[in-house]
Hints:
2 copies of one chain form a homodimer. By secondary structure, chain A is of the alpha/beta class. Chain A has helices spanning 10-19, 73-82, 97-111, 125-136, 152-159, 175-182, 191-194, 209-217, 235-241, 274-294, 316-322; strands at 2-6, 26-32, 47-50, 63-66, 87-88, 114-116, 140-146, 149-150, 164-173, 195-203, 227-232, 247-257, 261-271, 299-301. Chain A is globular and about 55 Å long. The mean pLDDT of chain A is 97.
Amino acid sequence: MNIGIYGYGNLGRGVEAAIAQNPDMQLVAVFTRRDPDGLKIATEGAAVVHTSDVLSWKDKIDVMILCGGSATDLPEMTPALAENFNLVDSYDNHSSIPKHFAAVDAAAKKAGTTAMISCGWDPGMFSLNRLYASCILPDGKDYTFWGRGVSQGHSDAIRRIPGVLDARQYTVPIENALARVRSGENPELTTRQKHLRECYVVAAEGADQDEIRQKIVTMPGYFADYDTTVTFITMEELQREHKGLPHGGNVIRTGKTGNGNKQVVEYKLTLDSNPEFTGSVLVAFARAVCRTAARGDYGCKTVFDVAPADLSMVPREELIAHML
Amino acid sequence: MNIGIYGYGNLGRGVEAAIAQNPDMQLVAVFTRRDPDGLKIATEGAAVVHTSDVLSWKDKIDVMILCGGSATDLPEMTPALAENFNLVDSYDNHSSIPKHFAAVDAAAKKAGTTAMISCGWDPGMFSLNRLYASCILPDGKDYTFWGRGVSQGHSDAIRRIPGVLDARQYTVPIENALARVRSGENPELTTRQKHLRECYVVAAEGADQDEIRQKIVTMPGYFADYDTTVTFITMEELQREHKGLPHGGNVIRTGKTGNGNKQVVEYKLTLDSNPEFTGSVLVAFARAVCRTAARGDYGCKTVFDVAPADLSMVPREELIAHML
C-alpha cells in the first residue's frame, strides 16, 4: 500500500512513525505547504512535495492520510482531496461532524473514492467503544473521561493572552468521579465534577501574573466551568518537564441486565504520545480504506463502517485461528 | 426481528432477558430438549417447543440464538441448524474454532444462511479488543486476564470428585501481575503468576477433606499449574454467599511507537452476571446477523466480520451525529 501524508506537524510525524511499523505499507510522499526543500523527513526514499503539486501524485498513492487541523484545514481539505484520493482524516469537531460528513460524502461519491473521517481515538476508538457498549447494554449510561493529558487547544488559548510566552494545559479526570462511575452508581456529573485543568505558564518579564491567572480561570468555553490551577514556571522548566504530549482517558458504560445485575464495560488509554497513537490509529484504518475502495464501496466512511478484520495485516483464517 | 432461543439454561435465560431490552426484537420461541409442557419461560406470548419440531419454525425465525454447551452440543448443533436458520452461537473452545468454523461455513454456504460463531465476551468482545489493539500497536504485546469470576468448568471438575456435594471455583487475576503489565514492563508471566484459583467446597459428611483438597490442587489441566486455595463450607453458606455468576477480566496491550513512547490500551469487564452479559452480546450480534443475511452475505461469520454500525438499533446518521 502506497501512503501519502498531507501535512507534516506532530500528527504527520506520528503517522510517519506508524507506517514504519507496518511492513505492508510504504510512505511515498509527504505534502507540505512550506518550502519542500526546507523540510527534512525521517523516511528515506519518500518524496517531499509542495501541496500545489498533489494532483500529479494521483496514481501513485493508494490512501492519503490528512494531518491538518480541524478548525480551518480539514473542512476545506478533506472534500477537495476526496475528489482525487482515497483518504482518512482525524476531524474532531464533534458538533460539526454531520456537516463535514455530508461535504466529504458528496465529493467522494461523485469521484468514486473512499474517504474516512473522524478517525483517531476521540473521535475514533472511544466512539467505537461507546457504540459497542451501548449496543450490548441498551439499559445503561455512558461516561467519557479525558486525561491526564495535554490539551493543545487549551494550551493555545492560554498562549494568546498578552504577557504569556508559552503554556501547557493538562486535562485531569477527577478520581472520585471515576470511582463513582465504576461503582455503577450512575451519577449525574457536572463539567466541574468530571475534570480539572492544570495550567503551567511562562510569563514575560514584568507581566502581571495575577491578571494572567484571572484571564485564564474566567475564560468562557475553556476554563470558566472548571476548577483550574495556574502555576507560573520558567521557560527552562517548561521545556524540561512538559515537552511530551501524553494523553488518554476512559470510556465507561454501566448498565443493568436481568433483575438489576450491574455490568460495567471500561476502555482505557494511557498514552505517552497522543500524536503517535492517533497516527497509529489512522494508519490501521488507512488499510481498511484501501480495501474498501478496492471493493468499489465509495463515499464517506467512519470507524463504525469498518469490519475489524479489514484493519489487520494478518489473513482472516489466521485471525480466526489465533486471535478469536 | 423474530428471535428463537435454542437451549434454555443460564445462557438461554440471559438471552431472553436481553431480548426484552431491545424493542426491535421479539422472542418467538424457546426450543428445549426437555418436555416443553414442564418448562416455564419469562416471556409472555413466546412458544416453548421441543427441539424435534424446530424445522416447522423455519420461516418464523429470523435469527436463532444457540445456547448449548461448547463441549458436546455446539459442534453438532450449529452446523445442523445452519442448514435451515441464520444463527449465532457462543462456541468457546478456542483451540477447536477453525474446525468448528469450517463445518459451519460449509453448511451455511450450501444452505444460504448466515451463521456467526464464537460470540460473547471471550471469545467475542475480548477478541475484538485484542484485534483492534494489535492493529493499532503492531510493536506490542497482548495480555488477557480473567476474573474475579466463577468458572463453571472448574466448578464442575471439583463436583466430580467423590465426596463433593457442591462447589464453586473463582478465577482471580493476580493484582501484582496486572500492575506490571499496565506499567508497560512487558513481563513474561507464567500461568501461576497470572491467576490464582479459589475453591469453595461442600463435602459430604464423613468425607476426607484432606484427600479432596489434595485431589483438587493436583488436578492436571485444571489446578495443578495454579496456586489454589480450598475452603470447605456448608451447603447453606454456598447457597447464600456464592449463588451469583459474576465474572469479567481485562485485555491489555502495551506497545511502543516512535522513539520508544509507551502506549497502553486496556479493555475491562466487571460483570455481576456472566450469562446475562454473554446473552446481551449474542443479541446485539444477532441484529448484525439478520442484516448480513438480508444482504445475501452467507456463510460462517465471526465478530471480526461485523461493521459496528450493524449492531445498533440507531440509524447510521444518528450514530454519526451523536456517538462519533
